[in-house]
Write a structure and sequence with these properties.
InterPro entries: DUF2971. It comes from [Collinsella] massiliensis. This is DUF2971 domain-containing protein. The protein has one domain. It is about 35% helix and about 25% strand. The radius of gyration is 23 Å and the shape is globular. It has 10 helices and 11 strands. The strands form 2 sheets. Strands 2, 3, 4, 6, 7, 8 and 9 form a 7-stranded antiparallel β-sheet that branches. A 4-stranded mixed β-sheet has the order 1-5-10-11. Helix 2 crosses helix 6 and helix 6 runs antiparallel to helix 7. The protein is of the alpha+beta class.
Amino acid sequence: MQKGARMGLVYHYSSPQGALGILQNKSFWFTDCEFMNDPAELAYSYELYDRAWVEVCREFGVPETQIEREITRFANPYECRAEISDALGIDIPARYYALSTCSNGDDAAMWANYAIKGGRAGYALALDGESLTQALEQLASEAPGFGFYVEVIYGQVQYIEGKQLENIKSAIKVHLERLAEASDSSDELDRFLCSEIARTDHWGWFGDVAPFIKRPEFAYEQEYRFVLKVTQLESEQKAIVAPNKNTVSEQTGPCGCSDCPVPTASPISPHFREGFAGAITPYFEVGLGDAFADVLRAIRGNSFHNAPFVKEGIARLVKGSGLKDVSVEMSDVLLRG
């Protein structure tokens, strides 16, 4: 699992429409990792793993004719076994959903690729990484009451191919050693169970690492990702995971009595939108509520045309949203219209 050290400010570049939705709803969209803007991410992580597998097998002295060169055909890095499976006694899947941010809040390439489109303005939202992580972990603790099991992973995306390869090779060596230990058992059932546990743990590790692997040519993005592993629980599963939690508030209903409580809206909800290349893209909208004020620290705008006009509009929205501690400024980076 790649769970990186928390960092200071990170920046989420956004279009005017995206920034408006974030600020008005105090929420972020976490996109299914299999549907990110770079469709080659999945293929690249597969390619790296297959290369690492072959190299390790050669180091271990496996004959060339016995080396499996497409080992990833058995894996799906963006769907995994949820950790809650052990408590439930059954295997249930989880999927990975990511929010992308950047460690540079005023980068020309990021403005051009992710914010400024068609001569319009763009925005970079400065987020406190520590506060965002805390808010997501709090959401994860409450999610079972709303029918979801959520795990939080965060970290810097790795772009250096050599380091990516060595990291995967190290994990493969540990995995093969565990398989070898399992095979030493004299009990057939014990051998089988230990081998299956080793395989589950290993592919689970790869699934947690895959969202943080990107091709070297994207290094300019300086990306820091917040990833949610989300499982949608069936009603009977929710009853086991969160037996004493409900999804109603202590407010009273329209008649004023306590017998008809008002349902509390889930802070995490599944949706679909048009994504890369027109694909129908699954995502989760994650509402931060009051914690949003601690997460958002500043907004930087960039405009081809009238910067004061753009700044005034976003400043009034910030003020009207009660975000009094959020500063607003304009970028000095000049872009071609």
